[in-house]
Amino acid sequence: MSMAIQSQFNPYDSQSFYDEMFEKDLTVRPHYEGVHRTFARMKPPEIAARQAAMQKRMLEEGITFTLYSPNQSEPLERTIPFDYIPRIIPKHEWESIERGMKQRVKALNAFIRDIYFEQRIVKDGVIPRQMIVSNKYFRPEMAGLQVPRDVYMTASGIDLIRDEKGRYYVLEDNLRTPSGFSYLYKGRSLMSELFPELYLSSRVADIERSLNVFLSSLRSLAPSGKANPLIVLLTPGAYNSAYFEHAFLAQQMGIHLVEGRDLVYKDHKIFLRDLRGLRQVDVIYRRLDDEFLDPIAFQSDSLLGVPGLMNAYRAGNVAIANAPGTGVADDKAVYAYVPDMIRYYLGEEPILHNVPTYILARKEDREYALDNLEQLVVKETSLSGGYGMLIGPAAASKEIAAFADAIRHDPARYIAQTTMKLSRAPVMMGGAMTPRHIDLRAFILMGADTHVIPGGLTRVALQEGSLVVNSSQGGGVKDTWVLNR
Length: 485
Prior knowledge:
By secondary structure, this protein is of the alpha+beta class. Helix content is 32%, strand content 23%. The chain contains 17 helices and 22 strands. The radius of gyration is 23 Å and the shape is globular. Residues 86-461 form the Circularly permuted ATP-grasp type domain.
């Protein structure tokens, strides 16, 4: 490596983080050699031209995300920040992740079914009953309700991080309406067009067939095994932050994009209003939260859902993916028990481990956390998207004190976790490569079989030193290449 390039990466040298591209001595990891060579040779004008071409394509295709901030009078719609230095995962590494993902969602799905039927895991004392009955996402309406194929989580998004030694940990389970699929596919499309020689020479695992798997998973839920079911994607509408994704997935899978007003309940069935009259809907892939699905069953003032939907669901005349009530398993306090679920339901040891987690409803965990808040990450159990968090090492004393008061007032509302040294990867900023922290959202599809989309979505904390990668907090994304050799 030339001295100029070595100097360019000096920021890596002084920090004790695992870097995806570089070893500690700044030699390039073998699976990154082609990518490093390509970007290290690029001149500033070429970098600027590629950046401009990419931004132009994103604007043309409307690849956007809407940011909502208390400091803004209006929501800000913007193109999702996309970094074109791909994150690369070797084949053997991915195979281990894939096994761990399949194991985890199998146990989580078994847990959700158990909670709404026998509750064996509670009766056997593995998980406290209070943690279930007080759970914001527990839906008594789902008790004893048989769902198609016993599949509660058709689409899951599991967030992974790496520590300073390069070991993978599960940070979070997203089982209700996980987002990010569109950025995964659009990122791949941009990379294959902007860097065709690099992409083709790297032998990257294909992700296109995963869309067919997604569609097949939805079809498999159709009542009575209908061969050609009518499937719709139910969106809150164009003002939703992820509306671009809803439109993208509906278009790619060839299913109808609908809002609640497009559907009607009649005779314990759901129908789609279109130019041909009423057509019976078999499967609803919903991208709105439980409480908005049906104003009769849940939140009475909801204008987004379909009155009577849960009656049709209970009658077995329509399938909903993901099933209502799946959020009981992605609560952040329940997360701490997933390794126990794997042992309980599968009789196996977890392949992928959790980040060490403290349940603040427990007196000993709470006392430890209150004494060490400046070293921990604190999260509200029912929130996602990077909201309701304290990152102790980066927080001001006033913020820490406020969280301490909130924990004392309502400890069951929070968990605390060890602050992990998230791995870093180079991003292109100002014409040069610079390190930023990343995580990985892996997407798992359950139907007749379980499928993990190769690579998933790498999310980037674009602010220097920040550990918050969520798009809702201003984070960006990278294409993720799984090598198939």
